[in-house]
């Protein structure tokens, strides 16, 4: 009986030692976790950006909640865009569309007066050769795209097609769609007038569309190296197309607000009327 008590006592002691060891290991693990978390927090802390006086002066001129004249807004964006690269000038437009009542997505193609992109290589699907096309497409081309022998962006930048070719292009929709190159009548890339469509693409025609779940348009106006007049003319061209694409059911002002910015500058609210 005494031996059994001694054995039980020994077992209990072993259990206690084991618990103590486990507690010690847990404490060490917790300490390590805290240390790692501390390192992460330190690494996440970013150094405050040091802004120059010219930048601060330009930003100080931006009036929050006030619609600036187009020329003034562009000037402020250019003045506050300091970087070692030619930043993109952007346009952001909030539209007056009730998304619950109107599921229509604003979508159109526009050719800007002043180009800022390299000329696109056009792949055309048609039974006859189309003047201006960089690459003509047929059944063999479709198979090569499906197999990855010919790739979007690497071998071509835009796709246009005669309506009769669309059933065949369904085979490569999963390739062209994600690349934003599936022919679409709203983009003007499904057409019987292929030569005319190619000319428009070559002069810089591109697609502008609102977000899927929000009445907001994000697009580009050019580069900060552009003159103020060039950016203004591009702005006016896009604004005109936005107004022309106002849904019939939309009442009152179609554009709530618009902002011009660059990829490295604050945004400036701009007049649209």
UniProtKB/TrEMBL annotation:
One of its GO terms (cellular component) is large ribosomal subunit. GO terms for biological process: regulation of translation; translation. Keywords: Repressor, Ribonucleoprotein, Ribosomal protein, Translation regulation. It comes from the Bacteria. The keyword Repressor applies. The keyword Cytoplasm does not apply. One of its GO terms (molecular function) is structural constituent of ribosome. Belongs to the universal ribosomal protein uL1 family. This is Ribosomal protein.
């Amino acid at each position: 009986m005494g031996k059994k008590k001694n054995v039980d006592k020994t077992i209990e002691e072993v259990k206690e030692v084991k618990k103590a060891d486990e507690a010690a290991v847990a404490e060490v693990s917790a300490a390590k976790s805290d240390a790692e978390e501390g390192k992460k927090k330190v690494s996440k802390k970013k150094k405050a950006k040091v802004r120059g006086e010219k930048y601060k002066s330009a930003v100080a001129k931006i009036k929050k909640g006030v619609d600036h004249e187009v020329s003034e807004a562009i000037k402020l964006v250019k003045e506050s865009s300091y970087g070692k690269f030619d930043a993109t000038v952007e346009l952001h437009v909030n539209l007056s569309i009730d998304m619950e009542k109107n599921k229509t997505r604003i979508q159109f193609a526009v050719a800007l007066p002043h180009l800022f992109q390299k000329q696109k290589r056009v792949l055309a699907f048609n039974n006859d050769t189309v003047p201006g096309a960089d690459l003509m497409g047929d059944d063999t081309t479709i198979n090569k795209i499906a197999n990855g022998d010919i790739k979007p962006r690497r071998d071509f930048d835009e796709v246009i097609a005669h309506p009769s070719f669309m059933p065949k292009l369904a085979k490569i929709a999963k390739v062209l769609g994600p690349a934003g190159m599936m022919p679409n009548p709203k983009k003007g890339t499904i057409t019987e007038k292929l030569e005319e469509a190619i000319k428009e693409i070559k002069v810089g025609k591109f697609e502008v569309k609102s977000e899927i779940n929000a009445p907001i348009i994000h697009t580009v106006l050019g580069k900060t190296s552009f003159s103020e007049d060039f950016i203004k003319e591009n702005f006016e061209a896009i604004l005109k197309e936005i107004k022309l694409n106002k849904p019939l059911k939309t009442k009152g002002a179609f554009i709530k607000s618009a902002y011009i910015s660059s990829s490295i500058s604050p945004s400036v609210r701009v007049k649209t009327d």
